[in-house]
């Protein structure tokens, strides 16, 4: 089978085609009209030379030919317009579908492959599908109809000359098939090279500030130039093979025309064939040669599209987190139990977490401390549902997180050190809804007040309807942190995680947040990752993580005498003195 008809990409394409049913139907009818008008011109020429030509007859036939030509041109132009509309609609819809689905994939995929490279691969594959759609709607239908009708027309006109004209076709097709296999391999190689180049460009531009600070422009420019050269060589080979295929088609087509002219010319001289019949025969043969040339790369185009769809099917195949069934509400999350929890990152034999057993209770605040690389962030990522390839169990109120099929991250609000914001209004970035009618005004006002972002709005003389740029570059670091806190508080999730969330805040704002932390923790499990050991007094329990294990877990007044905590405290003081 050409494509996997059960695949999500194929089904999406099928759905998009169904939405443009009438447009596609019109395209098919216009293709038929184009073919009929072109053959009508050839037949009119044949009729013209079958009778005695007078000025009146010539004028009449020329008028008919002009009418047919106008029909051909108008039909072709309208068909092209509809084809471009359909393929661009399918291209944009498929891209939005692919990226939307890609964002549901597990974090492990993005650890293995850079997001910029993933996007480049998706873009390349969608372009290949786009070319195939254009090929089918604009070329294949017309060319196939032309070849079929032309062959019938030639057989009816002169069987002998028809057989003579197709002598070279089998040989040409065999050679094209052989070369097309190499074209497919060259296309895959080019795809990889283009993906690497695009990834290098996107990643370089996204880190332009660091590049300038560390004077890396020359090095990265050289790397990009090297990758661009690889793309050029891959493209050059691909185009060389495609040019050979095109040359074979042109040679085969015109060889047939020359052979027909030579044999047909002798027939006209001997009187066994009318000159008009020969002219019409050659015209139809030229139409068929052009059509044959147009569909000569059908194997290449189809192979590219098949490869593209298979690539997308593999990339976008359904992860269990997409289904999100049997989810619990925030009120149902009474505790999080970690049972012999272990985890290793891809291609890293050393365990980031090793046999952790612990239970986090609702209405409690937990401070998690430890040296860099001890496993604090990894633990948070697992609780947040970013990874599922762990050993042991994560139980959300006695329900295994994996069996929740995507629900863990729906219960977690994470305030990061470097939060992400999209280009949109302030209220959209806080509420994460696209319609202001869905906003809970009371909850929004509470989130703004507790995060102190209402002061940012007042001081900057903006409103919640004001736009912010991607990553909120028009806000300061502290203002972005407050916005992230407001977003987390508005979500009202059962699990709230603060990952060094107060680093960019001024002391006054941090103090206000700490004062309200107990109120915020009501009916929630609050986990605070911090290097500020002075803030642990706000917690009910303090966990010390060392080498992927919980080395100590005690209330603040007891943990300060623990040897593991003392080591971290001394290290922190030492670093502060060095700074």
Automatic annotation (TrEMBL):
Keywords: ATP-binding, Membrane, Nucleotide-binding, Transmembrane, Transmembrane helix. One of its GO terms (molecular function) is ATP binding. Residues 336-572 form the ABC transporter domain. Residues 22-304 form the ABC transmembrane type-1 domain. The keyword ATP-binding applies. One of its GO terms (cellular component) is plasma membrane. The chain crosses the membrane at residues 21-45, 57-78, 131-153, 159-177, 243-263, 269-288. It is found in: Cell membrane. It is a multi-pass membrane protein. Its main location: membrane. It holds the Pfam family ABC_tran. PANTHER family: ATP-BINDING CASSETTE SUB-FAMILY B (PTHR24221), ATP-BINDING CASSETTE SUB-FAMILY B MEMBER 6 (PTHR24221:SF654). This is ABC transporter ATP-binding protein. It comes from Pseudoalteromonas luteoviolacea H33.
């Amino acid at each position: 089978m050409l494509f996997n008809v059960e695949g999500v990409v194929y089904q999406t394409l099928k759905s998009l085609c169904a939405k443009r049913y009438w447009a596609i139907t019109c395209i098919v009818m216009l293709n038929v009209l184009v073919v009929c008008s072109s053959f009508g011109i050839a037949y009119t020429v044949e009729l013209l030379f079958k009778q005695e030509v007078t000025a009146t007859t010539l004028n009449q036939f020329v008028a008919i030919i002009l009418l047919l030509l106008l029909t051909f041109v108008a039909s072709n132009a309208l068909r092209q317009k509809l084809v471009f509309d359909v393929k661009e609609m399918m291209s944009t819809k498929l891209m939005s579908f692919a990226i939307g689905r890609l964002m549901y994939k597990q974090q492990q995929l993005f650890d293995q492959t850079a997001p910029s490279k993933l996007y480049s691969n998706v873009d390349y594959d969608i372009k290949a599908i786009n070319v195939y759609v254009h090929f089918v709607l604009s070329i294949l239908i017309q060319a196939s109809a032309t070849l079929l009708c032309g062959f019938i027309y030639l057989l009816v006109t002169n069987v002998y000359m028809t057989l003579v004209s197709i002598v070279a076709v089998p040989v040409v097709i065999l050679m094209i098939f052989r070369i097309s296999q190499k074209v497919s391999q060259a296309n895959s190689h080019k795809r990889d090279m283009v993906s690497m180049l695009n990834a290098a460009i996107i990643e370089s531009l996204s880190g332009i500030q660091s590049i300038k600070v560390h004077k890396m422009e020359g090095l990265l420019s050289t790397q990009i130039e090297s990758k661009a050269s690889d793309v050029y060589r891959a493209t050059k080979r691909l185009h060389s093979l495609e040019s050979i295929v095109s040359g074979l088609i042109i040679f085969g087509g015109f060889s047939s025309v020359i052979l027909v002219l030579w044999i047909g010319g002798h027939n006209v001289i001997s009187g066994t064939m009318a000159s008009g019949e020969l002219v019409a025969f050659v015209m139809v043969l030229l139409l068929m040669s052009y059509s044959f040339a147009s569909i000569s790369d059908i194997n290449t185009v189809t192979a590219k599209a098949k490869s593209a769809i298979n690539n997308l099917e593999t990339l976008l195949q359904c992860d269990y987190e997409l289904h999100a069934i049997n989810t619990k509400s925030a009120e149902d999350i009474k505790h999080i139990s970690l049972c012999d929890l272990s985890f290793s990152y891809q291609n890293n034999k050393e365990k980031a977490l090793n046999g952790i057993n612990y239970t986090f209770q609702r209405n409690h605040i937990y401070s998690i401390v430890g040296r860099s690389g001890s496993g604090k962030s990894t633990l948070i990522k697992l609780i947040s549902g970013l990874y599922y390839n762990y050993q042991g169990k994560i139980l959300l109120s006695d329900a295994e997180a994996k069996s929740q099929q995507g629900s863990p991250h729906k219960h977690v609000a994470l305030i990061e050190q470097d939060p992400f914001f999209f280009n949109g209004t302030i209220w959209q970035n806080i509420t994460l809804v696209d319609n202001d009618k869905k906003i809970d005004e009371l909850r929004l006002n509470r989130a703004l007040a507790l995060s102190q972002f209402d002061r940012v709005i007042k001081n900057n003389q903006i409103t919640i309807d004001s736009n912010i740029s991607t990553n909120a570059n028009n806000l300061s670091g502290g203002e972005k942190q407050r916005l992230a806190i407001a977003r987390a508080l508005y979500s009202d999730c059962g699990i709230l995680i603060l990952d060094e969330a107060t680093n960019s805040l001024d002391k006054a704002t941090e103090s206000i947040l700490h004062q309200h932390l107990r109120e915020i923790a009501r009916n929630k499990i609050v986990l605070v990752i911090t290097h500020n050991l002075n803030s642990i007094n706000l917690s009910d329990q303090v966990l010390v993580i060392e080498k992927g294990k919980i080395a100590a877990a005690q209330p603040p007044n007891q943990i300060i005498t623990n040897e593991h905590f003392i080591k971290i405290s001394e290290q922190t003081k030492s670093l502060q003195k060095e700074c």
